[in-house]
Amino acid sequence: MEDKCTAYCGLYCGHCFSRTHIRPTAETLLDQMRRQGFETFGPYMPNYKEFWEFLNTLIDAEGCPGCKRGGGNPACEIRICARNKNIEACPLCDDYPCSKFGWLSNNINYPMLEKDNLYMRENGYDAWLAMQKNRRSERFTYIEEREKLRSLE
Predict the structure, then answer these.
(1) How many domains, in total, are found in the chain?
(2) What pTM did the predictor assign?
(3) Which residues contact 86 (CB under 8 A, 6 or more apart)?
C-alpha cells in the first residue's frame, strides 16, 4: 500500500516541480553540454567544477525525499501524529480533519489538497494513488495548478 511519494498530509511528492521539471531539465542540459565537449574545455572555465557538481546533484537527487523518508520538518505535528497512529495518510484517520491539519487547509500552494484528501477518504488510498500516478504521467505539478487557479481570479 505505501508509496514513497505519499506524504502524511495527503500531498503527493511526485507532483513536486523539482521532480517533474528540474531533474529532467538538468539531465537535458548535462547531455547537451557533454555533446558540445564541456567535459574537455569546461575545466578551464571559472566555477566549472562547482557547476558540474551541482548539475549532477540535481540529477542524482530527487530533492526533498519526502516526510516519510526523512525530508521536511522533523517537528511536523502531522507527521508525528500519523506515525504515532501508524496511518498512511491523514485522510485515513478517524479524526481527520483535525487541528494539526488546519495550517495546511486552504494553503495557496496546494489548492487541490482538501479535494484530493476527500477523494482518498471516500474512494480509498489505492484509488487516490492511481489518480496521483495518472496525474504524474501527465507531468502535473502543484505549482502549475496554483498558477492556473490564480489566472482565473
Answers:
(1) 1
(2) 0.69
(3) none
